Amino acid sequence: MRRRKKVSRQAATSLLDLVAADAAEHAALPKPNPQVAPRWSAAEIAVVRRFARGVLSKKYRNAVLAVEPCRAALGPVTRTTWPGLRTRKSVHRRLILVAIELGRVKSRVRWKPEEKAVLDRFARAVATGRIRTARGAGKACAEALRRLHRRYPEKFAGAPDRKEAGIQGELWPRVAKLCHRWYNSQWSAPERTIVDRHARALVAHRYPHARAAARACCEAINRMHARLARRSGRCGPVPAVRTPSGVAEQVWLRARELAPLQLPHRHWSAEEWRVADRWARKHDLHMRGRLRMNLETMAGLMQAELGRRGFYRNVQACVTAIVTRRREGSRRLKR
User: Fold this and answer.
1) Handedness of CA 283, 288, 291, 293 (dihedral sign)
2) What count of other Cβ atoms lies within 10 Å of the Cβ of residue 116?
3) Which residues, 6 or more positions from 45, have their beta carbon under 8 angstroms from its beta carbon?
4) What is d(CA 93, CA 183) in angstroms, rounded to the nearest whole number?
5) Roughly what angle, to the nearest 10 degrees, separates helices 164-178 and 134-151?
6) Whether the predicted pLDDT of 82 surpasses 60
7) I need a surface site. Which of 100, 141, 328, 332 has the fewest CB within 10 A?
């Protein structure tokens, strides 16, 4: 028998690896110690500071790689036989905090009110047309934020310069809100009322197909938003709020909730095809001179029968179904 090679345990390279190693260590203990870890002592902080300097000097590529050697060095200082007193996750957090105290630039910093004010100013410039696009506003906004950071160095100490991608992510929702453009947003009650009205009209067959209902619904919703914009004192043309594709999806979903079998241009169900087969056999008798009822009469009667079963098909659809099923039946008989 071949002996299995011992697989060396790989060093943790991410925070998830540290969490997994902590969980495995605690699971291996016979009884988890309910002891609460004490506050970090001055001696422990001194050890952490030594390794934090190693992270800043690039001796360690990141703080995760410094966790294991730092934890090993903390053992004699902590003076405990319980290995989980200082978990890898807690050591990593302490390394980050000490490194920031020593001058490390923060990777994620919350937006301060002063920065948000700059974002709002550029979003209003895009919404009012002073800047053509939000993408174009991103560069100017980034430069304004850099000037803000230089003007107040103490307030923004440790905060990195904002990147254009992050600025765009903050600008787009503000511009969308000011322009009444709600991409991927919750539909308001007035919008849903308009969608419901057009979906009911579609179910009642006042539109030839769902596209026509969605087109009319989209125009009605955008007219409503234009009226709201004019009432709020906005001048100039108002861009469309809802797109035809987004409205079509809402109309279709609402119509399916109301009466899924009444939608035009949908796939035929097995029950509908059985009805069509029965009328196709009657049409075959008519074509052989054994039945006086013509195709148009059969299609009208078939439409009425489908209506009694809860399905909607117009007369032309029934004509097509009868002729198609008769031809298919003739081909099967010839085979």
Assistant:
1) positive
2) 13
3) 94, 98
4) 38
5) 120
6) no
7) 332
Residue 140 contacts residue 164 (beta carbons within 8 Å): no
Residue 280 in contact with residue 293, Cβ under 8 Å?
no
Q: pTM of this prediction? A: 0.43
What local confidence, expressed as pLDDT, does residue 6 receive? 42
CA distance 115 to 322: 69
The Cβ of residue 91 has, within 10 Å, a number of other Cβ atoms equal to 24
Which positions ≥6 away from 86 have C-beta within 8 Å?
A: 37, 44, 71, 74, 78
Structure tokens at 203: 């179910």
Token pair belonging to 208: 């030839």
Collapsed DSSP state (helix, strand, coil) of residue 210: helix
pLDDT, residue 217, reads 96
- Report which DSSP code applies to 180: T
Structure tokens at 78: 């902590």
pLDDT for 5 equals 41
The Cα–Cα gap between 53 and 101 comes to 11
d(CA 178, CA 127) in angstroms, rounded, equals: 6
Is the pLDDT at 33 greater than 70? The verdict is no
Kindly list the distances between the CA atom of residue 54 and the CA atoms of 88, 101, 259, in Å, as whole numbers in the listed order: 17, 14, 68
Domain boundaries, the chain: 15-30+38-101, 113-178, 189-262, 270-334
What pLDDT score does 4 carry? Answer: 43
Using an 8 Å Cβ cutoff, are 276 and 325 in contact?
yes
Specify the length of the chain in residues. 335
The mean predicted confidence, pLDDT, of the chain is 82
**Site of tokens 């301060």:** 112
